Each structure stands twice: as C-alpha cells, then as structure tokens.
C-alpha cells in the first residue's frame, strides 16, 4: 500500500499536521516521543522545534508531554533523575516547552512475532502518540529514524539489552573455511582470522549482524535474531493499534547517533522535514532523500546497511516502504 509522506520546511509543518488530521488528537494525553540528547552531543532535536510541535498539539486540543525512556548503559540518561537533569540542561523544561517532561523505566510485556518486548508504560497506555525523530547515522543499525526511535527508545532497559545481546554472533567451527570474509566486513575489528584460527573479541562487538550476513558458509548465526529485525519488531510492539503521527527531522545529519557524544562529522547537508503516519514509509523516504544527495552514505560510513530495518519493517507489517512524496 502506497503511503503519503509530506516533505516541507518549518513554515508549512502545520499544514502537514492538519492534512493528517491532528484535530483527532483533541482531548487526548499525547506522549511526544523523542531523544533529548546524550551529554556532549550537540545534534539532537532542538527545544525550539519541540515547542513548535507541542504548541500545534495544544492548538489541536491535545494535552502533550515530552517522553523518553532511560538507557541501559551507564551514561547521563541511565536513571530517571539523571535523564531529567540532562533534559533540563538541554533546554527541555516545562517553562521552555510548555508541558511536562516524563522519563519512564517501567514497561508492559507485549508479544510481536513470537517475541516479548517490554513497552514503556506511557506508550502502552496512550491511544495517540507523536513521534519526533532526528534522522542520523548509527553504528549498529546504519541509520536511526522513526523505527529506531521506538525500537530502542520505546522499551525498557531489559528489552534494550535483549535486543543488543540477541544479535551477537554464534560461531560454528565445523562450517568455517577460514575465508576471512567476516573479519573483513566487521566494522569494529572484533574478528581476526589467520590460517586456521578464528578469534572473536566480544568486548569489541556491537552486535550489528554484518558478519552473520556476510559469511558465505553459514558458519555464523545471530544468538537470537538480527538487530534490525528486533528493532522493527520492538517498534511494532510500541505502536501497534495506536494513532501515531511521525515527524522526521533531516538536519544535522551525523555519522553517529544522538546517544554518542562524538556523533560527528555531519555527513549530508540539511534537507528539511518529513511527516507521515507510517514509520516505514517515512524512514524509507528519509533514506532515499539522503541517498539522492550522498549515495549510500550511511552504508559506506558505518559499514552497515540501514535498508534492513525498512525491509524487516515491511515484512512484519510495521508499515509500507512504498510511498508518495508530496512537497508542500
Ligand atoms: S566468513 Fe564464515 S567461513 Fe569465513 S572465516 Fe568467517 S565464519 Fe569462517
Ligand atoms: S556482529 Fe558486527 S561488530 Fe560483532 S563481530 Fe559481527 S560484524 Fe563485528
């Protein structure tokens, strides 16, 4: 099914919201799901854009609040208090934005494709959600957009760890020919092959599944499943049966993600904003627009193909990769 994706600048964003019937959000408590940036990262979605979205939701009669989850690693967003302090530092306060800022670390068990994902309470309990995603590169999934905003950002620490750990490679020596392909493709030098020796350093591995895809002899398998498949399933767990409007910001497009204090350099010029009601269509349109300017830039720079999350998203009916881009 072909989905509509609007492409616009900031001045006409409100028109796109109206075309997707934002007025239907009237009377609803609406989480605005976003990443408020890791300490030291300057590229995350800015409070000015977030305030604009919150104001539009209020004009439509909704009751919005900013929402994100705590992270599994020990950084500045590991606990609710730490995250709220960092959000304040980055300009996300009730005074600046005009709504509450809520950080969650509890979840509700949700089944997708036979796997369980712990979806954040505030997403699970909402009927209407607004997804505000900064599109940028990512060291494990090639790119982060709407799918990743929910797939990793909408679930509890427990599920985040399961997704990361689930895609570590499992090696079968009997099937290995020591061809060295896995060592060549690994973006993090986690594998070395020499003669008839195959060595793996788990501390260097980010579970990106690239070696598993590349092995010509099926000597490598994911512990559980491909990272990008799990991201798509996890995103579906967060948004299935909900009304969700997606805004992707294609600005400050960096090599790495907003979780990374050293996410630079910027690898593509600013493009603009996309709006859709389909997470797969909006991420595919984002990727196509970026590829039109810098062909396969995420794949080249991060050595991981971001198309996998889009293909998996379509396979599990998270959304459609077929879209019509309409410029406003
Ligand atoms: S790519 Fe597969 S067969 Fe080749 S060395 Fe790696 S694990 Fe062994
Ligand atoms: S999963 Fe990715 S990071 Fe880990 S060994 Fe394979 S290619 Fe390297």
Keywords:
binds iron/sulfur cluster; 328 residues; alpha/beta; 18 strands; single chain; 2 domains; two-stranded antiparallel sheet; Rossmann fold; Alpha-Beta Plaits
Question: What's the quick description here?
Answer:
With 328 residues, this protein is α/β, with parallel strands linked by helices. It has 13 helices and 18 strands.
Descriptive notes:
Helices cover 33% and strands 26% of the residues. By secondary structure, it is an alpha/beta fold. The protein folds into 2 domains: 260 residues, LarA, N-terminal domain (Rossmann fold, 3-Layer(aba) Sandwich); 55 residues, Alpha-Beta Plaits, CATH 3.30.70. The strands form 6 sheets. Strands 4-3-2-7-14-17-1-18 form an 8-stranded mixed sheet, with helices on both faces. Helix 10 packs across helix 13 and helix 11 runs antiparallel to helix 13. The radius of gyration is 20 Å and the shape is globular. The model has no long low-confidence stretch (mean pLDDT 96). Bound molecules: iron/sulfur cluster (SF4) (2 copies). One iron/sulfur cluster binds next to helix 8.
Q: What is the number of beta strands?
A: 18
Task: Describe the global form.
Answer: globular
CATH class of the largest domain: Alpha Beta
CATH level-3 fold name of the largest domain? Rossmann fold
Number of helices: 13
Give the DSSP E fraction (strand runs of 2 or more residues).
25-35%
**What is the number of independent domains?**
2
Mean pLDDT, nearest integer?
A: 96
Strand numbers in spatial order across the main sheet:
4-3-2-7-14-17-1-18
